[in-house]
């Protein structure tokens, strides 16, 4: 018999030990997740006979609802979801950042497209190569099937839709996942109706919203408190304003990191999916870039994810104040921070401005001219062709989405300086 989830008790113990502050908003969300946890555990009880398990599978696919938590940054959504995830004693469960998950989905779709003609020939025992060009099948369904076989529970952090390629497949992907009994728990800064707001071809995306509402309870967390601002800071600085007088510099930190690795600094490169990513300075698990190298080229979430997987400590110099004329590098910087934060990368930054001044959002309005829109469309078409559905992500942030994402990034940068975050990275200087 699988043990009962103790999510509520775990939360109460954290409050009693002063590791968390009591928050009725968080506790209310915890009770909803506790109810879901109990349902999942009951449905997956190992004590059931085969008839009960079969009936449970039918019930799960028809009635079980996940949970979609949304609210402002820093209210504790991710922390609560992680407590829930750890409380579920299932082997087939997965917790991931939503953008990372969609990169994996697009990669699988790309592979499925490549394999479909071969599979068609095998199934029909054909040898006529000419028939390959006429074979077309939606590759999303088999990808959803394989995902449903791998996991019972999917937990997504930062559920957001800014990519038209994601927007166009969400309905078919999640409809199939839900029908096959996959339970989804997600955190987001947006209500379902505000996802992909003002995005290109949004009318096609809108069909996803009722699907999400049908299979997930929607729960809003409202609070005036950003708990990331309350986190205990330590004495090891990881954000350097170059105009300040300080006892230790950004370069001193890099020297410490290199000395700890004990190997020579060199130029290297990462190769993946037929692409090359240049690393100007690397030393064991440490890498150093300047802002231009990381955010002013054609890098994407896939590139930043590769950096996370190979380097646990990353230095970035020359981070500027970003305004209307810097929207593309700003978007990449936002994506980079999302990836680094979710993968607990130890990040050290040098900039000419304080964290609170990194973004000048005054001119970030919604794209509203034909010239801008046509330019965006051309870029999108070019990049979608380049990636074949798997490599480069073109995010279509509107001005409203950009401002929201920028505020989230500032909150995360503050949290990345906290003692708790640094301990979670496992890196010490």
UniProtKB/TrEMBL annotation:
* Organism whose genome encodes this protein: Oopsacas minuta
Nucleotide-binding as UniProt keyword = yes
For this UniProt record, give its keywords in alphabetical order, as a comma-separated list. Answer: ATP-binding, Nucleotide-binding
**InterPro entries in the record:** ATPase_AFG1-like, P-loop_NTPase
The protein's name in its UniProt record: AFG1-like ATPase
Family the entry assigns: Belongs to the AFG1 ATPase family.
GO terms under cellular component: mitochondrion
Q: Which Pfam families match?
A: AFG1_ATPase (PF03969)
Q: Identify the stretch annotated as signal peptide in this record.
A: none
NCBIfam families per record: ZapE
* UniProt keyword ATP-binding, yes or no: yes
Q: Name one GO molecular function term.
A: ATP hydrolysis activity
